[in-house]
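Exercise: predict the fold of this chain.
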Amino acid sequence: MDIEKDEDEEKEDITNLSQQKTTQDKKKIVAKDLVELEHVEVKKQEMSQETKKLSDALKQFGQEESVSEELSNDEITILESFVGKRLFLRRIAIVVNQSRIPLGIEPFNKEQLELLLDRLIHKNYIGFDIVNQERVYFLTDKGKEYIQ
């Protein structure tokens, strides 16, 4: 009988220990119990008058620049034909018309090319020098920037 009592006591001890562990586990403090959350008011920051004026001026400047600087497809084709070189009108005509003829588009004649080149000069995308009484065209910094 003593053996049975010892076994019963051991079982009771084990159950008591397990019950103590579960109650200890339940009593453990969790981090969220330690933290108290508070409501924080957030206010939207107002833009100063000086900043508003500057923003409006930049927007207006960007709109004016984009309206005046629109390039036609033909002008873009001419700009892309330079590839960092200085070109005579004849060479520009060859390079530009080389891409137009296979597509069935009418090639540019001399007058049309000169008109497009003059527009690009006016918009400051290209410049020219006189060499042997002929114009040699080249990209300006603005033209190089546009192509890149």
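Check your answer against the key: The radius of gyration is 41 Å.
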